[in-house]
Description:
The protein is an alpha/beta fold. 33% of the residues lie in helices and 23% in strands. The protein contains 7 helices and 10 strands. The strands form 2 sheets. Strands 6-7-8-3-9-10 form a 6-stranded mixed beta sheet, with helices on both faces. A 4-stranded antiparallel beta sheet has the order 2-1-4-5, with helices on one face. The radius of gyration is 18 Å and the shape is globular. Bound molecules: adenosine-5'-diphosphate and magnesium ion.
Amino acid sequence: xxxxxxxxxxxxxxxxxxxxxxLSFGGVRALTDISFDVREHEVRAIIGPNxxxxxxMLNVINGVYRPQQGEIIYRGxxxxxxxxxxxxxxxxxxxxxxxxxxxxMTVLDNIMTGRNLKxxxxxxxxxxxxxxxxxxxxxxxxxVEEVIDxxxxxxxxxxPVGRLPYGLQKRVELGRALAAEPKILLLDEPMAGMNVExxxxxxxxxxxxxxxLKAGLRGAGVPVEPAGRLLKFGSGRHCx
Length: 240
Ligand SMILES: Nc1ncnc2c1ncn2[C@@H]1O[C@H](COP(=O)(O)OP(=O)(O)O)[C@@H](O)[C@H]1O
Ligand SMILES: [Mg+2]
């Protein structure tokens, strides 16, 4: 997770550009003519009341919903048929408003699932645990251990996620997303339900990888640093 460049936190080029996005579900308009962009290393926060369309926007970006109108330009390419798998493969990771982890699996194994798309070796080699598969597994485990160290959750690495308090589960979910080494990290309500201390920890966890992992970040309910741009959804919805 080390980053050698001293300018690693400098805001860079636009990596995601959303133009005039509209999304409706039957008669319900979730998003109406929304435009904004996200730059490399930038944290963008979306604020707005319940039902304003924050989660829907994240779902559009990672391919869960396809907007009826608008354009998405991701790293210079127009996206039309992006599905969730393609989005993940192209470097978009996310966490969910309702935590999406395997509750019976350990913290370590859950974070390991963040590496799935990066695994190259075929199933047979993996099953036999030989040759390239073995080397690959060691490499992935190393990355996962780095994430665990970064989030300071070594003490719970063998604990089944379902036994952890809510705040820690949120951290593990962030860990799974970070393990994918994303270009863009979408966090949906990363601090909802947390106490003040947990929120402070989470703020550090969110703002540090932006520099270290070169990930552009955006999400709902994340305190923005002074340079961060705020995106406001709701009545009289507009972009800043
Ligand atoms: N899958 C869906 N089917 C129907 N309506 C939906 C769906 N997802 C979101 N909506 C509606 O879209 C609007 C925006 O919801 P949402 O994106 O969840 O807002 P927020 O995350 O800001 O609370 C709401 O009116 C919600 O009921
Ligand atoms: Mg939401």
